Amino acid sequence: MKTGIYPGCSLNGSARDYNESVFALAEAFGLELEQVSDWNCCGATAAHNLNKDLSLALPARILALAEKNGMDEIIVPCAACYNRLTLTQTELRKDPELRNHVSGIIEMDYKGTSGIINVIEWIDKYITPNLEGRIVIPYAHKVACYYGCLLVRPHKVLNYDRPEDPQSMDLVMSKIGAEPIYYPFKTECCGAGLSISRTDIVSKLSGKIIEDAESRGAEAIIVACPMCHSNLDMRRNDINKYWGKEFKIPVIFITQAIGHAIGLTDKKIGLKRHFVDVKIS
User: Fold this and answer.
1) At what angle do helices 16-28 and 254-261 cross, to 10 degrees?
2) What is the tally of structural domains in the chain?
3) Is residue 126 part of a domain?
């Protein structure tokens, strides 16, 4: 099976650390990942609000390129990209006429044959079964696993984990030695794409997520979405100012937590790129 990876805009920019940790894990477990060539932006949170054809054409072109490169499945680490690609694939599968229309727009044949998996599904499928004997530094900390909005919703389309109380990330963290806490804010919104335009809303929403995690004794917030990480980590100064207190809890990608547990260096998994200092050991 040929596995591709669609990095999206974030993993090549603001979430470079996430990208580094994904490829570091792949290398450590002997997994070959091939980047989708000539990829484009998926449209993220903007395109579907502006133009229906554009919102379908952008993800469809990515998927068509994956098919052209013979990729049986593609891992999509960004939750927003994963959401847009999966929704587009589902919509075009249900409507052959619309699929032909979109194929005409992108000037490529699109069949919808490549599977789409998020980063936790990739971990569950290829890494978790091979963790035994690989843990050299157990991640012995209490953690709040934060899934965000887009990884589990809409449930009827994504059909991934439980929409209100997902457990997949918690289970992975348990396997590397962590103690996932009960955390009712697992799927609350962090402010998503309002990070630039309405930092006040992001500060309020992300602050609630952070405050609840700290109040329950969590020592880190674990994420699998670059947008969530950006809002909870990069916007920390704005959050602290809005709430009138200093939150020190770090925000760590699940791939970084696993990488550290199997002995990869902080540099290898990008832990030095965070705004909030990460002290694992």
Assistant:
1) 40
2) 2
3) no
pTM above 0.85, yes or no: yes
User: 144 and 115, same structural domain?
Assistant: no
pLDDT 10s digits, 56-102? 999 999 999 999 999 999 999 999 999 999 999 999 999 999 999 99
- Judge if 138 and 264 occupy the same domain: yes
Domain that holds residue 95: 3-120
Domain boundary among 67, 93, 120: 120
Q: Which domain CATH number covers 7?
A: 1.20.1050.140
In a domain, 281, yes or no: no
DSSP the chain: -PEEE--HHHHTTTTHHHHHHHHHHHHHTT---EEPTT-----TTTHHHH-HHHHHHHHHHHHHHHHHTT-SEEEE-SHHHHHHHHHHHHHHHH-HHHHHHHHHHHTS-----SEEEEHHHHIIIIIGGG-TTT-SS---SEEEE---STTT-SHHHH--S-SSS--HHHHHHHHTT-EEPP-TTTT----GGGGTT-HHHHHHHHHHHHHHHHHTT-SEEEES-HHHHIIIIITHHHHHHHHTS-----EEEHHHHHHHHTT--TTTTTGGG-SS-----
